[in-house]
Amino acid sequence: MCGIWALFGSDDCLSVQCLSAMKIAHRGPDAFRFENVNGYTNCCFGFHRLAVVDPLFGMQPIRLKKYPYLWLCYNGEIYNHQKLQRHFEFEYQTKVDGEIILHLYDKGGIEQTICMLDGVFAFILLDTANKKVFLGRDTYGVRPLFKAMTEDGFLAVCSEAKGLVNLKHSTAPFLKVEPFLPGHYEVLDLKPNGKVASVEMVKYHHCRDEPLHALYDNVEKLFPGFEIETVKSNLRILFDNAVKKRLMTDRRIGCLLSGGLDSSLVAATLLTQLKAAQVQYPLQTFAIGMEDSPDLLAARKVANHIGSEHHEVLFNSEEGIQVLDEVIFSLETYDITTVRASVGMYLISKYIRKNTDSVVIFSGEGSDELTQGYIYFHKAPSPEKAEEESERLLKELYLFDVLRADRTTAAHGLELRVPFLDHRFCSYYLSLPPDMRIPKASESIQDQNCPLNGIEKHLLRETFEDSNLLPKEILWRPKEAFSDGITSVKNSWFRILQEYIEHQVDDATMAAAAQKFPFNTPKTKEGYYYRQIFERHYPGRADWLTHYWMPRWINATDPSARTLTHYKSAAKA
């Protein structure tokens, strides 16, 4: 996890413009550098480093003696860089995983390069010999990237939007800043005056498609067919590999643990892999919640079962409310469920940074979207509609869950790793017949009196049922949203927030919401309150959020799972 920033064709003083790059200093607390581009006095790179690999030669932009015309600034991890280096016999100059991008580009061009990268990344690649600039971002947008470009060819790029919004340009008093789309790369021509012109924007990978780099990995051979035992075996192989490849780091590894299925599977598998790799330190797991939080109880049970060094962080409603402003500033969004869920993750990340030496943090993000884990999937009209919804959610992850996960951890100089969004694991899961992936009833949960229409993520649970990775009651624990599970059922976090905000936004102000905010008009006082904070930090930038996250098929008026009939029937049982 690092912060990248670059300007091409700036009309203003670079030393002044570079102040904007300091807005993302939290992403790289270990070192920073600004570097002008030879021959282009109005072009420069900025880089904030979190040293995760190669502490000696890992500064950026990366320049190699063999390719003096190439400049690379990237944020991410390329998990297959050593495999590709060995396969193509590339001569490495550093131990940095991103160096592979330069070698691949020199060998086969940008399209072959980006399709071969197994990992998460956002990059800016400059080729001064061929007068090209390339921007690229991973399939799900796990690593963030924003850009601003004017009609006269000024280009600004940054890991977070806050590093661009205050930039000045002569032809654009208000610089339009927008997220760079995941799963795409862009080719731009570099002109002699440092300005650029977009040539093409290319979607290089769809989540259903097996990635090109699968040809070069050494994953155990998968078995063909869709018999349930075959599928379960393949899923275990791919998930184990997804966790194993993400051990690549020189820093201590930790894991967020809510006690839900996803984070518990990650933590249990991670601990097994760390032992196999003979890592000498114990795995630290981290849970957060208020008093009587079901997540804290469940996480404690998992930690005892797997034998991790467990940390519990307690917070109260006042502490949560007090950080709303800085959370929304970090997030760069006003989406209601994202803000709610981010408070706990922001506070626990703050604790990790202050009290431990864990820097690389594993988490369970992406599983709900991939494996149809949200409770409203019980109401899907058909398996095919559920499949469509799952892919829509994956496509929009960069606006919601992975945005939350990146910003709340990066705000405190931590790097997040999300094995459920592994390219091969995802493409295989999405290749399975739609009716295998929907919520189903199970004999394993009859003793928990779960609703008759079964339990979400049934296939994932069944896959690990005989592994003894987790206690049975955790493996079959029904879905509990992170923003709900951190508080008791009697007093949910969303209700605490709503009760506080009720006194912050009066009825007359709410009645005029449509006039004040015609785009994405808030429908509740809670939504209005978050929007106010957002507009204070990022005035006129509401279009960064295209729409609010909301359950489908059930006419929901609130994104919390605890407001849904299905949840209430399970809670009463």
From TrEMBL:
One of its GO terms (biological process) is L-asparagine biosynthetic process. The active site is at C2. PROSITE patterns: GATASE_TYPE_2. ATP binds at L256, I288, S363, G364. InterPro entries: Asn_synth_AEB, Asn_synthase, Asn_Synthetase, AsnB_N, GATase_2_dom, Ntn_hydrolases_N, Rossmann-like_a/b/a_fold. One of its GO terms (molecular function) is ATP binding. GO terms for cellular component: cytosol. Its EC number is 6.3.5.4. Residues 2-191 form the Glutamine amidotransferase type-2 domain. L-glutamine binds at D97. Pathway: Amino-acid biosynthesis; L-asparagine biosynthesis; L-asparagine from L-aspartate (L-Gln route): step 1/1. The record marks E365 as: Important for beta-aspartyl-AMP intermediate formation. Pfam families: Asn_synthase (PF00733), GATase_7 (PF13537). Keywords: Amino-acid biosynthesis, Asparagine biosynthesis, ATP-binding, Glutamine amidotransferase, Ligase, Nucleotide-binding. It catalyses: L-aspartate + L-glutamine + ATP + H2O = L-asparagine + L-glutamate + AMP + diphosphate + H(+). This is Asparagine synthetase [glutamine-hydrolyzing]. It comes from Pteropus alecto.
